[in-house]
Amino acid sequence: MTLLTSAWLFIWMALYNSRDDMNTKAFEIMAKWINWFMVIVIISAVLAVYCLLLLVFALFQYALKEPLDLHCVHKVFMSVGLLIVLAGIAAICREWKEEWPTVSLFLQATGPFLQLGAVVALTLLSWLVFKSYYRSRRRASKIIIMLVWAAVCLAGFLCPLLIHNFSPCVLEHLPPKPALIGHRGAPMLAPENTMMSFRRSLECNVTAFETDVQLSKDDIPFLFHDNTSLKRTTNVKEIFPERQNNKPTNFTFDEIRSLNAGKGFLAFQKDPLQATPPLSDTEWSNVRNQTVPSLNEILDLAKEHNVSIIFDLKNEKFNNNDANYTVQTILESGIAQHLIWWLPPGHRAEVKSKAPGFRQVYGSLSALRDDRGSHLNVKYNSLNTDTMRKLRSENVSINLWVVNERWLFSLVWCAGASSVTTNTCHILKDMSRPDWQLEPMLYRMIWISADLASLLVMFLLFLLQRKKKAKRQIFHLESERTVPLLANRVIKS
What is the pTM of this model? Predict the structure, then answer.
């Protein structure tokens, strides 16, 4: 149970990078923002710590030769914990299965450290294993104990042979640092998809702005992510209460412009489980005055600072006019065409003919191959390290979205990503190197030294237990001899 709850907590630590995706999905269902991700993490941590403490107490009782008697209350709690974990795994498999590859990435990032931790744990547990071995009276039991223990130790000691090829950051030559692309600007420092957010991302020296384009009722392209309603990030509920559930495309641009685009950011930052960004009073005042920008506004900002733009057309499948009006707006803005990274796949051939200077970016490897493209934009967990390195050798530029955590940025850096789309450019911009990177020879020396040290300690513990058993046997024999002598003296007296 301890291993199960620890693995469950490990899974949620891995998925922390995508916490906003889960909370957004929950908002779409419940129409209320609750940080469900952190609630689940807290419950998982409590379960893991509880089971770990029970295990520690059980080991102490075993070492002291006390009976292992688990109270019924603990049995109930552990049963409830088991049901929570199993229900959670089933829920992820059903509603969030695309995130399972992230757990594998987290294993790649933490594998060397987990192996060293496992070696330390095996070394400490060996005392109890050898104690059980010498306590066993049957020869078969002793053989089973030692065979199982040898198999476990062998797996723990030799797994670096797999980690060596499994972890991208065990390499000799570190690729260049990936460029940063501001996901809807800098949404941890300002309301997403607002001019304040995009200006804050410029402080991170981003290569490009990432945004979402929709068409208003009067055919004006504007920047907004959600295409089902305006409720999550604006005060539409207060301004247009009878239309709060309408799609953004059912509003004119003047109506959209009248909304406060900072409303959701202010509510989000009231979350007690969320760190409040270090904004000044003036900046908080600016947050309260943010509006939904038009596409023209970000084009002017990008042109001024020579920054590229990559975007999704949120309603491309439903409205064929979106691509036409968007391309027309871009061309009329006078921005250099090479600064536009065209991602929407629906009207690519038509866009190529109208704007041949646009950089064509593909959302899947198959589409890239079919069109013989050279720019790929995919989710961070959709490519393995070998594929990424092969693509880089073919001069394919790879952008991965959305990379927020330092460990993940370090991993894709080692794997050779060209750029990443991120919510946390203010954190990643200060990284001069990955959190860790080891040359293969150095890593080999570390794990071999750790394994040898563990084996030496285990051997000494085995000898110590053997010596203690021999002393107990001598004491037992002397006791057997002393008791008859005492009995004879009693009889004679």
Answer: 0.88
